[in-house]
Fold this sequence. Notes:
Elements lengths: L1 H16 L7 H13 L7 H36 L11 H14 L11 H24 L5 H25 L4 H9 L7 H19 L2 H7 L3 H6 L4 H23 L5 H13 L3 H25 L8 H18 L8
Amino acid sequence: MLLLIEIAIVVLAFAVGLGSVPIPFDEQVRIIADRFFGIHSEYAANAATILITIRMPRAFLAFLVGGGLAVAGVVTQSILQNPLASSYTLGVSSGAALGAAIMTVCETSIPFLGVFLLPTGGFAGGLISVLFVMALAKRIDHGLSSHTVVLIGMIVSMFANAIITLLSILFVKHEHQILSWTMGSFNGKRWYHVGILFVAVLLSMILTLLKNKELDALSFGDDHASTLGVDVSKVKMHQLILSSLLTGVSVCFTGTIGFVDLIAPHVSRKLIGATHKWMLPVSFLIGGMLMTVADLVARTVLAPREIPVGAVTALIGAPFFMYIYFGKGAKNVG
């Protein structure tokens, strides 16, 4: 954990330092010391503006999104006992994007929600999607086999993406914003986005960690968990809601970004084992670093042009998905 935290700090330092205007680490320290702690020192004013208002919120948001999606992936894989389950493969991400898109094209205004309006729409869309997937899968296959759940999730995801595309055609003035959700981007994000997501991630992480023993039991199957006194249905529903919250808030700000919630849990299991007390925070750190690096690649490799971060994660995640499905992980699927 300590090593991963140190690596995460280094990754974030690189993320905020690299770009069209390089900002060395020592200058980053001087700027942060002055702006946040009142310790005055010399630094370039334009570098401070770039660091504080553009790169830091973008890097921190990428880290929180990656970490939140990773935690959602851990929860989903545990309660479904499925190594291929994630908010992306179950259609939660696409459902959350659809919920946010509907809020946008309808130009919905709910004063008391304020900046929480889009996160609420994303959360509702993600939750409806996962509940629909689970209900339909149970109707088709009472045993809820892994193949059935993943297949229906992918179908729901494609259907939601088709509706999003249709909305972008019908509502031209919102076309750019809607299509950006289908590709994923951290461009133009500000500190209030970071604040909202930080609260959502912190709350979900605490509530999930409080159920770490129940998640350990569910990893071995519903029958095993029931014999240990776990209220399986109640725990599953609570954890699916938390998973949808994390995914919905992330997607409505940044768009659909896949595979991080699939990769991070598998890597953390290799490093730390399957005990959720440690697996959840480790997955959060790994997912956060993976997303931060993906965003760094997205905005620097073809600078000044920017690659959608969803494309970068897909280049890594698609082969990883195939490895799990057809390779060593195949024996655990189904």
